[in-house]
Amino acid sequence: MSPKPCDHHKETQFSCADIGVGLRPTHYPYLETRPPTRVRWFEAISENYMDSEGRPLAMLELIRSDYPVALHGVSLSIASAEGLRPHYLAQLKKLTDRIEPFLVSDHLCWTGLNPSNLHDLLPIPFSEEALQLILKHVDQVQTTLGRQILLENVSTYIQPRGSVYTEWEFLTAVATQSGCRLLLDVNNLYVNARNHHFDPMIFLDAIPAHLIGQVHLAGYTDMGTYLFDTHSRPVYPPVWELFEHLIGRIPNVPILIEWDEDIPDFPILEQEALKAAQIWETHYGHADSEAVPTMVL
Ligand SMILES: [Fe+2]
After folding, report:
1. Ligand 1 center to 10 CA (angstroms)
2. 208 is in which domain, residue-wise?
3. Residue 195 placed within a domain
4. Separation of 290 CA from ligand 1 center, angstroms?
5. Is residue 91 part of a domain?
């Protein structure tokens, strides 16, 4: 299977803004009816389908028959000092061979020590030692999967000692030296800027556009003394402002809305994605109406 627009898209007016949303079980009953939607692709959490032969995988294959799908992992643990888990890599390889996603991504973090996987995206020091370890692991993953991967910047609440790079220097070094691409989460970038007191614009402008292969947008929760990356709310205005600044440099990058707690009905999630499309259109106008009909918001 190669990525293809679905017939639903032909029924709907679209711009070229490549907007997607996360595939979540709460929306399965709605999506099973194969309703017309105005999103162009879905992102699925890899681990939710790696051990499944039942309804989840059947649902993913149904979606995949209509839309391009990206696989987004949360347990690769690319920065693990213990090395990558062969069984996990084998499962991921099996899933990617089955689904043929147009993107495969995970996070620039570690997630525990054997035999425990904490399901938390734990921060790493931006050190030379960590960089060399991650470069080795990215090569191992890309060789195993036979394809390029993307790594996402994560939200953090502490800063481990030992960093000799800034976060943006480290991300750039990982992508440049490993050949992977970056999944730039603008919400995470803003959360870190607030939590660690730096100017988010410096981070944003420092990442070379050609290294950015996907963008995430989401909502945080303001805990008073820090921002918590909950994915439980609409995207906040400061994050939209950063996205608007960024989008002028990346016309052809897939954009995803993440919403993982207090998940609204699908049409509300869809509307949030359309806000991103509207910002895209302020920069690039409407698409060729012959090839890709213009979306009406
Ligand atoms: Fe994200």
Report:
1. 29
2. 7-284
3. yes
4. 33
5. yes
Residue 296 covered by a domain: no
Amino acid at 62: L
- CA-wise closest residue to 222 among 212, 214, 211, 233: 233
pTM: 0.90
* CATH number, residue 67: 3.20.20.150
> Which pair of tokens denotes residue 196?
């660690």
Going from the Cα of 6 to the center of ligand 1, the distance in angstroms, rounded, reads: 25
CA of 188 to the centre of ligand 1 (A): 7
4-35: pLDDT as tens digits: 333 433 333 434 679 999 999 999 999 999 99
- How many CB atoms are located within 10 Å of the residue 166 CB? 14
Q: Answer for the pair 41, 254: CB distance below 8 angstroms, yes or no.
A: yes
pLDDT of 223-254, one tens digit each? 999 998 999 899 999 999 999 999 999 988 99
Residue 291 belongs to some domain of the structure: no
Between the CA of 30 and the centroid of ligand 1 the distance, in Å, is: 24
Cα maximum dimension of the chain: 55
For the chain, how many structural domains are there in total? 1
The alpha carbon of 103 and the centre of ligand 1 are apart by a number of angstroms equal to: 14
How far does the centroid of ligand 1 lie from the alpha carbon of residue 182, in Å?
11
Tokens of 140: 């191992």
Cα 208 to averaged position of ligand 1 atoms, centre (Å): 19
